[in-house]
Structures are given as C-alpha cells and as structure tokens.
Amino acid sequence: MSGLIPDSFIEELLARSDVVELIERRVPLKRVGSEFHACCPFHDEKTPSFTVSPRKQFYHCFGCGAHGSAIGFLMQYEGLEFLDAVEELARMAGLEVPTTGSKQPRPDTGLYDMLAACSKFYVEQLKSNPAAIAYLKGRGLSGEISRDFDIGYAPAGWDALIKRFGTDDSKLEQLKKAGMLSTGKSGSYDKFRDRIMFPIHDRRGRVIAFGGRALSDDGPKYLNSPETALYHKGRELYGLYMARQRSGRLDDIIVVEGYMDVVALAQFGFRNVVATSGTATTPLQVELLFRAADTVVYCFDGDKAGKQAAWRALEATLPKMKEGLQARFLFLPEGEDPDSMVRKHGAEVFAEQIAAAKPLSEFFFDRFTAITDISSLDGRARLVQQAQPFIETMPQGVFREMMTTRLESLAQHRLQRQSAPSAARAPDSGERGKPVQKRTSMRIALAHLVQNPALVARLDNVEDFTGPTDDEIHCVEIFRELVDFCTERPNITTAQLVELWHDHPALPHLQKLAVWHLPGEEEKQAQEFIDAVNRIRLMWVEILLSRVTNIMDEREKYRALQQRQQALKKQLEGEQDSVK
After folding, report:
1. 293, β-bridge pairs
2. Does the predicted TM-score (pTM) go above 0.85?
3. pLDDT in tens, 359-371
C-alpha cells in the first residue's frame, strides 16, 4: 500500500470506519433510497450531485468527479497526506497505526510533544514580557488574534529553553532533533532568542516548527526552524491549518510572503491566508493550495523580487492547472506589503484588489510580450520558443488549449499541438459533460465486481481464463487478478478494494468503474454480472479456437473447445429467452 502501513491494517481501519458518519460531520447529507446525497463540498453547485454509498463505503461526485474512501475524503477535504489521513482515521476509530520495516522510519511522536510544550512556553513568556506585548500592539495585533495563532515570545537569554526542558540528555537530544537548539564551540544554546514566535502547524494542527521575528538587531530579521524529521518547509504552508479550521473547503486562498501578513489579514477578516515561510512556492505547496480551494491568489510585492517570486509560483502552478482550477496574481504598490496595505486602506479596498488580481494567463503573456518584440517575425518566433515549453507542462484540457490558442494569436502562427495520451482521450465514466465509456462485457463484469465484491461467490469455472492473454479481450489479466483478490476477501467493500489496490496500475480504470451507474435490484445486477462473465468466456474460447493451427494434431483440444463454445452459446441464449 504505502510501504509503511500493512495492507491488513488499512483493510481493518476501513472496516471499522463509516464513511457516511465521517462525511456527515462535515457535510449535511440527505438519504435518498439506499444512498446519501449532498451538494458537493469540493465545487460550487446548486443541485446535489455528491453521493455517499453505505454499502460501498465510497463517495462520488457526478459533477466534478471527486471520489474515494474515508481515507480519500480526509485527504481531499482536510488537505492531509495519505499517512496523516490514516493516522487521523485511526485515532477516531481507537486504533494504533502499526508500521512495517522501512528505510524511512516515522518521526518520534515525542518530537510533537516537545514542540507543543515549547509553543506553550513561548505563549507564557509573551504574557510576562511588556516589550514583546508592546511590539505586537504597535503592529496593530489584538490579544484575540495573537491567541488564535498561538503567538509567543522567546526570551533573550541563551538557555531559557534548555533550562525549562533540557532536564536530561534525552530531552536535550529531542530539542536538537526538533530544531530548537544551535551548537557552538561551547556547546548547545537556544536557537530562538528575543523573538516573537509564530508556531507552524501541520495539516493536523500539530506544531512542527517555528518562525521567529527579531525584536532587536541581533541576527536576521526573521529566523525559521531548520529542516527536521517533522518539518520540510517546501511541503508546509503557514496558516493553512487555521484557515481550514474556519472552513473545510475554501472559496479561494491567498498566498503571501510573511507570517505577520497572515496574522494581520486574519485580524481584518481574511481567514483564508497562508504564507510560504520565506521559500519559493513549490509544486507540493501548490497541491496543498488546490486541495484547500479551487482559486489561488498569489499576493506579492510589486518590486523586482516580488515579480520573480510570482514567476516561480507560476512555474510551480502550471503543471497543476486542471480544469476548474484558477490562479491569479496581485502585485502591491512599491513599499507596501499586505500588512501595511490592509491597515492603511482597510479590508474593503484590499478585498477589491484581491478580486481584481490578474489571471494567470494575463500575467504569463504580459511577461513574455514585455521582453519580446512581437512586431517582428524574429520576435514572434522567439516568443513561441520561450513560452511554448511552459504551456506544455500543463495538463491536457481546455485551459491548455486556450493558452496555446492565445500564443498562436500573438505569434500569428499555427503551432503543432502535442496530442493527448490515449488515456486522456479515452471516454470517461459518465460524469456530467463527459462521454460515457462503452459498456463492454469486460467493463460490465469489472464494474459489478468492484462495486459488489461478494458477487465473486457466484462464479464457477474461473479456470476458463487460464492461458495467455490477448489484445482482443482487454483487462482479462486484471479480471483474473481481481477475482482471486475478492475470493480471498469475501466481505471486502469497494472502499477497501480501492485503497488496497492503491499502487496497482489498473487503479484509475477500476476507480472509474466503481462509480458507474448499475441499475436494477440486487438479483438483477447479479444476473447481469454472470451474463457478462459468460460472454467473456465465450470470446475467450473463440480466441483459443482461432489459435489452434493444426486441427488434426490437436483434435481433442479442438473438440473440447468446440463443445465448450456450444454450451456457452446455449447458456447465453437461454438467459436471453428468460429475460424476454
């Protein structure tokens, strides 16, 4: 599954979790027949297209295509990584997550406890330090907003943290591993001294690092925790946990550069703001942003450094720009940052500026046309040479096509488009506005088996499918593997099956079939499954017959195949007559 967690635990975890109960805590559900419906929490809609199946333990939106198990819902709704989602679900189920051997062991949970204690210590120190309180008041921060973000103060001494928590060698080692100490010739000392402290939380709300703003001129203005077993700055966003606590799925999310910008904007009512903690925006951070909201607004200074930071953010964003997602860019006036801007002009003006932020496409083409003379043939050729490679990093879809069309318009030249991979052009699973997959016998059989694995008990003579696979019958190998898998686990649900096949190359195909609409009562569906399997058997026997090259030498094999062919034909004819 993940290389860290045994498949048997994933199976047990999903068996002890109820996806309906999990989702209902976050999204109002209404029972409709045997399923539950709601307006999708992952995109805007007026008519409910989001369904949750108690039998499958699976959710699916027919509007945007979101689907998955309880683990998948936590990942998509809460923005958690797989391991974090498993741990959170296990906590709710009262289970302890086991691990198998791994070259990368999970972090010591004691580090989380140590960092939480450090954060609490800094908050206590702030309350008793008039200079630190005066600084925050001078920046316009209220006591309430400081409390919401757990803002604290690191004392000016060299060993305040060591004295409080470094009571023995093991505790000192934990402080070092957590990135809270520095080491010099004379030994270890507190890394953060005389600084306003901003704890950085992971997506589960645990403190994993700190950012410190200096109150004196001693050292850099801002100092961040180093990379540790818990903290990888290219994978975290300051303020994301707090933003999602207010709303599981945000309408949009604003990205700024500094901790103080996040806190100041929150005080003015903008609770959807995060910061990259002084790093260039990474692809992993972009994934987190789009899990939280469909629209991302990058807000940077309007100077050269701000434009460069924005361009790096654009480069990281382009490969993630699936249909339905948007990115915009707001550049503030010279000398302004979000903190000063909102205090000087107020929340209403700042909201207007956010609403008027440049679309990604406009920022993209403005950059190239500013440095290229598109009035000349050479300049237009250079424009294509520079811009096209960036566009080709985008996923196939309407937005990429429109970006290419815009480039063609500026270059006054028709470009050779890269054709989409066959998988991208293949018919989809019946989501709104998309073509429906052709209902072949193999797809019908697989769909029924994925959606109701207990149907495997209705099969007999699975040995029919022994022998080499053939391109004339797609997915036979997958079907045989799925039958064996379900036979070993007769009570498995759709959700468990999908999670346990997480690393299988056939998973995307099975996920589409898992949300096919299969009408009819249970017995009718079972008969449709058996009919589909028998048609596959017939095709398989006919392929084997065609491969007999010398009938005289293989007459017994040929005769047995003919008899099997006739028996299957009669069986299928009888089934059709019974339907009539």
Report:
1. 250
2. no
3. 999 999 999 999 8
